[in-house]
């Protein structure tokens, strides 16, 4: 009897969740295989270069998700800026389960992960800042203020996720989303 196939989306989401909870160093290949719904041999078959290749696949998936669910929405001129902002904040809330989930970029930037994935993580954060900075111009913010707000938003989200997780209280994350809204809508 042939084993049940795991589709690519399910596979990557399972791997993503393991890295979110365990980090790069803490995630064993057995845990990654289990999270992906595969046997360890099947995981190696899909990712012959091992854990680093798995991490890169998860980062690529995350990058694609951000592009589709945040950046394209920010650029969608068929909607008013306020509507786009609301959609993006909603998607950010969903991505982090309203502040109950850890960011995979943070998880992969711990210990050896930063050495391996540092440039990719930096690039993702720069992309976030650039897209939100460009978006702020649509609210009449000058370039310097818009860039500062974009950075503050990213720092706020990342920081509030850490504190919300540590305190088992997602209210700080939700407050941060509200603060970001106020940065743009005055």
From TrEMBL:
DNA-binding region per UniProt: 28-47
Entries under PROSITE patterns matching the protein: HTH_TETR_2
Keyword rRNA processing recorded: no
Statement: the UniProt record of this protein carries the keyword DNA-binding: yes
Xref: InterPro entries: Homeodomain-like_sf (IPR009057), HTH_TetR (IPR001647)
Coiled coil: none
Keywords in alphabetical order: DNA-binding, Transcription, Transcription regulation
Pfam families according to UniProt: TetR_N (PF00440)
Top-rank lineage group of the source organism: Bacteria
Occurrences of domain HTH tetR-type (ranges): 5-65
PANTHER family hit by this protein: HTH-TYPE TRANSCRIPTIONAL REGULATOR YJDC (PTHR47506:SF1), TRANSCRIPTIONAL REGULATORY PROTEIN (PTHR47506)
Protein name per Swiss-Prot or TrEMBL: TetR/AcrR family transcriptional regulator
């Amino acid at each position: 009897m042939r084993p049940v196939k795991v589709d690519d989306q399910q596979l990557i989401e399972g791997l993503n969740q393991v890295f979110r909870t365990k980090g790069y160093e803490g995630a064993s290949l057995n845990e990654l295989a289990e999270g992906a719904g595969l046997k360890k041999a099947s995981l190696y078959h899909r990712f012959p270069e091992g854990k680093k290749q798995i991490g890169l696949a998860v980062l690529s998936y995350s990058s694609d998700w951000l592009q589709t669910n945040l950046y394209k929405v920010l650029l969608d001129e068929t909607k008013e800026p306020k509507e786009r902002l609301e959609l993006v904040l909603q998607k950010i809330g969903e991505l982090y389960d309203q502040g109950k989930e850890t960011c995979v970029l943070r998880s992969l930037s711990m210990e050896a992960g930063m050495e391996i994935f540092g440039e990719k993580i930096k690039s993702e954060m720069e992309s976030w800042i650039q897209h939100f900075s460009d978006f702020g111009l649509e609210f009449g913010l000058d370039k310097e203020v818009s860039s500062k707000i974009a950075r503050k938003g990213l720092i706020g989200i990342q920081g509030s996720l850490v504190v919300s997780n540590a305190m088992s209280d997602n209210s700080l994350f939700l407050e941060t989303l509200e603060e970001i809204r106020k940065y743009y809508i005055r």
